[in-house]
Specification:
single chain, 150 residues, four-stranded antiparallel beta sheet, alpha+beta, 46% strand
């Protein structure tokens, strides 16, 4: 009887260990997740400069290597073809700060000159984001946030 209990306990440890190893491996392979993404555009006034900013929270179990940000007008050629990871590789990087165990809060901000604003298409715009974790997994969201250029 003691031998049967020992075998049952050993089998249970092996099964639980296997499940734990699977859960750990499965967690490490999860791509980064984005949450609370917000874009804000302020048009330039007079000789002043406007601003464009984007913030998001990224969770990646292996840590975040980089976050690239690209704003694009909804009526552009990108609307017909979603941005690819290759196109996003050359996009501007965001600055990220720790915000929890596996989470960082990333911010991208740039100035918008009057001539730049005048030459930009008016209407709806989207923000595409490429998040790359330290383990190499990526998340591409071509419409992480939206804003309007008036």
């Amino acid at each position: 009887m003691a031998r049967r209990i020992a075998l049952s306990v050993t089998a249970g440890v092996v099964v639980l260990g296997g499940v734990g190893a699977f859960a750990l491996a499965n967690t490490e392979e999860q791509p980064p997740t984005l949450a609370h993404s917000v874009a804000h555009y302020t048009a330039p006034e007079g000789d002043g400069q406007g601003t464009f900013s984007f913030t998001t929270e990224v969770t990646a179990s292996s840590g975040l290597r980089s976050l690239k940000v690209m704003a694009w007008p909804a009526d552009s050629s990108l609307a017909k073809m979603e941005p690819t990871a290759k196109e996003m590789a050359g996009a501007e990087p965001a600055t990220c700060e720790p915000a929890g165990a596996d989470t960082v809060r990333c911010t991208y901000k740039t100035g918008v000159a009057g001539a730049e604003a005048a030459a930009s298409p008016h209407g709806a715009w989207y923000v595409a984001v490429l998040a790359t974790a330290k383990d190499g997994t990526t998340t591409l969201d071509d419409k992480a946030a939206a804003f309007t250029v008036d």
